[in-house]
Design brief:
Blueprint lengths: L2 H11 L5 E5 L5 H9 L4 E4 L2 H7 L8 E4 L17 E5 L2 H13 L4 E6 L13 H7 L2 H5 L4 E7 L8 H21 L8 E3 L6 H6 L4 E4 L1 H4 L7
Parallel strand pairs: 1-2, 1-8, 2-3, 3-4, 4-5, 5-6, 6-7
Bound molecules: pyridoxal-5'-phosphate.
Length: about 220
């Protein structure tokens, strides 16, 4: 299947209320343009430098999602154009995103990343650390941030029950945050599901899936 066929398949597969973010990391401009021509507008990258290089070469109505771990000192390179930042897991990073958004006189959509996998290497808040680090007083001051929801990555495993349970946990976290901290209507994003596990994610309430290799083909990191 080529890029356009895969995209068509996904738009049919995924319910209307679920946003498809096409993860274009490591892929060339031409591939992104091919996807763009089918009407795809949400694209995800996980490296600041790559995102920074691709953005000026592509149509300005693309909504760029920064889906990877973001270092505080790099927010300044993407703050003037990035549409949504998915992997936010510290107050320090929130403060910097707010600062850069303010500088650019715009608002940036943010998702809070939660650690749901049973792997140590993955980033993200736990509910406990979130409560310790973040209080509502901090958040109100962040006028240039729009808190849109949560993001999480399941354990890399073939055991679908493990994956399903982790997605359930993220949905529960979202519901709790929505009722206790972020009661506004635009807190409406649960970003979960990748090529391997998006079907389970959608069944468990995902509203945003991040699909890379199933659209653009396998990535070759050795190049
Ligand atoms: C690469 C990446 C994806 C997409 O992964 P695929 O398996 O290629 O669909 C999704 N989310 C994040 C955070 C990623 O880094």
């Amino acid at each position: 299947m080529d890029i356009q066929e895969s995209l068509l398949k996904f738009t049919k597969d995924i319910p209307d209320n679920v946003t498809l973010v096409a993860v274009s990391k490591t892929k060339p401009i031409e591939s992104i343009l091919e996807a763009y021509k089918t009407g795809q507008r949400d694209f995800g990258e996980n490296k600041v430098q790559e995102l920074q290089q691709k953005h000026p070469k592509l149509p300005s109505d693309i909504r760029w999602h920064m889906i990877g771990h973001l270092q505080t000192n790099k927010v300044k390179y993407i703050g003037h154009f990035v549409h949504m930042i998915h992997a936010v897991d510290s107050l320090k990073l929130l403060l910097e995103i707010n600062k850069q958004a303010k500088k650019a006189n715009r608002k940036i959509n943010v998702l809070l990343q939660f650690h749901i996998a049973n792997e140590e290497s993955k980033f993200g808040f736990t509910m406990q650390r979130f409560k310790e680090e973040i209080d509502i007083g901090n958040l109100i001051q962040l006028e240039n941030i729009v808190f849109r929801g949560v993001m999480g990555m399941a354990t890399y495993t073939n055991d679908t029950e493990i994956i399903r349970n982790e997605f359930r946990v993220l949905k529960e976290i979202f519901t709790k945050l929505h009722s206790e901290y972020f009661t506004h209507d635009t807190f409406d994003v649960i970003s979960m599901g990748m090529s391997q596990d998006y079907k389970i994610a959608v069944e468990e309430g995902s509203t945003m899936v991040r699909i890379g290799s199933s659209i653009f083909g396998e990535r070759n990191y050795k190049k």
